[in-house]
Amino acid sequence: MRQTSLPLENLQAWSRFNNVRLFDVAVEAHIIADNGDDHGGGLLSKAEHTEAQPLVAVPIELVLSKERVEEAAKVDKSLKELIEAVPTLVQNDRTAVLLFLVYQMTINSPDNNDHALGVNNPFADYVKFLPKDIPLPISYTADERELLIGTSLAEALDQKLISLQREFDSLKAATETIPWCEQAWWDEITGSLDFADWKLADAVYRSRALELPRGASVGMVPVVDMANHASDDRYNARFEVDEDTGSVLLVVRDGKSVKKGDEVTIMYGCGGACEMIFSYGFLEEHARSAREMFLGLSIPADDPLRKAKIWVAQAAPGVRIYVDDADQVRWDSTFVWWACINQEDGLEFRVERTVDGDTELKALWRDSELDPNTLQAKLLEDYLRDVFVLRGTVMVQQRVEEQGMRLAASEDEYDNALPNTQIRPFVYETVGRLRKLEMDLLTRTYEALEEQKNRLLESPVVREYLGQNRSGTEVRDSPEDFS
User: Fold this and answer.
1) Which residue among 293, 429, 439, 442 is least enclosed by CB atoms within 10 Å?
2) What is the mean pLDDT of residues 62-82?
3) How many Cβ atoms sit within 10 Å of the Cβ of residue 80?
4) How confident is the model at residue 448, as a pLDDT?
5) Coil, helix or strand for 234?
6) Whether 226 contacts 40, CB under 8 Å
7) How far apart are CA 445 and CA 473, in angstroms?
8) Rounded CA gap, 351 and 353, in Å?
9) CATH number of 8-62+214-271: 2.10.109.10, 2.40.30.60, 2.170.270.10, 1.10.600.10?
């Protein structure tokens, strides 16, 4: 769908007309970094600001959130038709805003012939200021996605694209019979909405939405969302919600000051390298570690309790590897603990009937009902604790080794690929940095798990357990080979 754009220089005027207050702060279309790079649009301080002083104040009615979409639908018949047709999408903060974005994009588009569509609101022009090309991985070409093979981003991207396609298909199926949707979106001649538009709306939301403090909603905050990212020791501003008015404030970060001519920056998130690229399309210039990564895991198909474990656990099927504040490698996974215990250890399942007459699957640990959220704590308090930890350690180490081998095996393909019409230079460079950082983290993790495994193998509990297994003495079962 073709889009109408407004230059960022006009955002300052839009702010005045919509009661957005800028306290000696200007919206700039081009922010030039110290190294000469153009960071694109951003916020620039025109005076000195000290700790906790306000920089920008945005009225609560300008926060584009699920609640704002529902309010807008009360005075917009066409929008109301849309959100009533797709209740499952409106229930979610993200997809509710995505619906509004594609709706407003449609109204603004030169392809739209229905001039009666929509009502005047501040967001009509705000959407025109939003970028039309955001370099998130969901916009990568097929050749660029090949560069990701072996990284944790490859699997995350595959799942994201499947999810986006499912949402788009659901939108189409639910709105094909709405006259304006059929004409503006789905008709073979006049329709102009396609999957790329849904991906663009998602990229806009994901790269700009803020999780507001004090229980406020998640949403896009005009002008505040112009602030660029800086690392955790460099950013100089933070956002908060005014308790009296509900307005969103951008204020100087504690312990910092902002001088005249400084760029106003915030920290987008504290996730790892994969998350930064996935959600924002770039890596920090000073990134020296992948910080964390998520690796998918599965329970073996021959585990007789596999389906029951997955159903009751309701846990993400994978393991999070991360570096803590003390620069030590750790892993965290509810799923691993479910995967590494069996019936012989004391895990059982039974089907119970509820008071409503429905059936419910319950987990039991050594004949007592088990709260799924307490499994890890129970295993770590058990007399076989070291055995269970050893099983989890081995499972994670094997997955880390598998990922490292996959990443190493694809290195030649990456090296032989060169920037061209299908591989943009900044994507090639970004993916190359991600590959190196993740290989470093995988190597550190494997070595740390090897040390932990060797320590556990010296545990008296483990030695006795393995010795009993070999001698045929009856004990709770475990994998025979921990190597």
Assistant:
1) 429
2) 95
3) 14
4) 98
5) coil
6) no
7) 35
8) 7
9) 2.170.270.10
| Model pLDDT for residues 433-474, shown as the tens digit of each residue | 999 999 999 999 999 999 999 999 999 999 999 887 665 544
CA dihedral sign, ordered 178, 179, 184, 188? positive
For the chain, give every domain's residue range: 8-62+214-271, 64-211, 292-471
Question: Which residues, in sequence order, are bridge partners of residue 21?
Answer: 57
pLDDT in tens, 264-276: 999 997 789 999 9
Closest CA to 151 of 51, 257, 278, 261: 278
Contact between residue 164 and residue 199 where contact means Cβ atoms under 8 Å apart: yes
In 3D, which of 320, 370, 324, 381 has the Cα closest to residue 347?
370
Amino acid at 279: S
Strands, E assignment, 9-85: 21-22, 25-28, 42-45, 54-58, 64-65
- pTM here? 0.90
| Strand 263-266 to 228-229 pairing | parallel
pLDDT tens per residue, range 403-427: 999 999 999 999 999 888 899 999 9
Tokens 């969302």 sit on residue:
225
| Alpha-helix runs per DSSP H in 384-424 | 385-409, 411-416
The full DSSP string for 363-386 is EEETTEE--GGGHHHHHHHSTTHH
Confidence of residue 8 (pLDDT cuts 50, 70, 90): very high
Which among 249, 211, 205 has a CA at the least distance from the CA of 25? 249
Strands of the 210-211 sheet, one edge to the other: 64-65, 218-220, 210-211
CB atoms within 10 A of CB 201: 24
Which pLDDT tens digit goes with each residue over 211-253?
Answer: 887 666 789 999 999 999 998 788 999 999 998 888 999 999 9
Helix segments in 410-424, DSSP class H: 411-416
Tell me the torsion sign for CA atoms 270, 274, 280, 285.
positive
Token duo for residue 163 = 């999810």
Instruction: Give dist(CA 50, CA 434) in Å, integer.
Output: 36
Using DSSP's 3-state secondary structure scheme, residue 362 falls into strand
DSSP code, position 33? P
Longest dimension (CA), the chain: 83
